[in-house]
Structure formats: structure tokens, C-alpha cells
Amino acid sequence: SRRYILELLAVPTDEHHPELPERRSGDIARAIGLSAATTSEHLRQLANAGLVSSRREGNTVYYRLRNQALVKAFQDLLLALDKDYQTRLNPE
């Protein structure tokens, strides 16, 4: 779930504005299909790890990636692991 949250925050919401998005905690919960409480706990853990930052506007909390380079490295690692796994499944 935390990986999906990071991936969600790494995708720009508008092709005309490629900067990283800021998303409301409720929108994140709906996108990943978890309860608001569970999602909030995941977001708290990601914030404690320094991966996301938040800001409050009234009763709404917005989250965004804090370190895009770290998330990109994580995505690259996952791609490399997937490729390695596929190579092991289908040796030539």
C-alpha cells in the first residue's frame, strides 16, 4: 500500500503541469481502496521516513513527495527486480 501511495504521488495529474501532484488524504484512500484510517497510518509512516510531506488546509490534509529522486531510485529497483525475475522464469 505504501508503495502504491508513493507511485500515486509520483504521477503528475495534468500533462500541461508536469510538477509532482499534491493529493488529499481522502483521495489517496479512495485510489488505493483502503479506509481513511488505514491510509492515514500509511501516510504517517511515509512522513516519518521522510518520503512525503504534508500541509493542512482547514480540515483537509494534502500530501506530496518529499524526495522524488529516492522514489525514482525505488521504482528503478523494482523494474530491475521484475526484469531479473522474468529472466529467471524464462531462461533463453
What is the strand arrangement across the widest sheet?
A: 1-3-2
Beta-strand content: 15-25%
What percentage of residues falls in helices of 4 or more residues?
55-70%
- CA-based gyration radius: 15 Å
Major β-sheet, in short?
3 strands, antiparallel
Structural class: alpha+beta
Cα shape: elongated
Question: What is the first-to-last residue Cα distance?
Answer: 34 Å
The helix tally amounts to: 4
Mean pLDDT: 86
Number of beta-strand segments: 3
Run of helices and strands: HEHHEEH
Low-confidence stretches: none
What does this structure look like?
It is a single chain. 57% of the residues lie in helices and 15% in strands. It has a three-stranded antiparallel beta sheet with strand order 1-3-2. Helix 2 packs across helix 3 (36-48). The chain contains four helices and three strands, in the order αβααββα. With 92 residues, it is an alpha+beta fold.
Write the layout of secondary structure elements.
Elements: H1 2-10, E1 23-24, H2 25-32, H3 36-48, E2 52-57, E3 60-65, H4 68-89
Antiparallel strand pairs: 1-3, 2-3
Primary descriptors:
alpha+beta; 3 strands; 57% helix
TL;DR?
By secondary structure, the chain is an alpha+beta fold. It has four helices and three strands, in the order αβααββα.
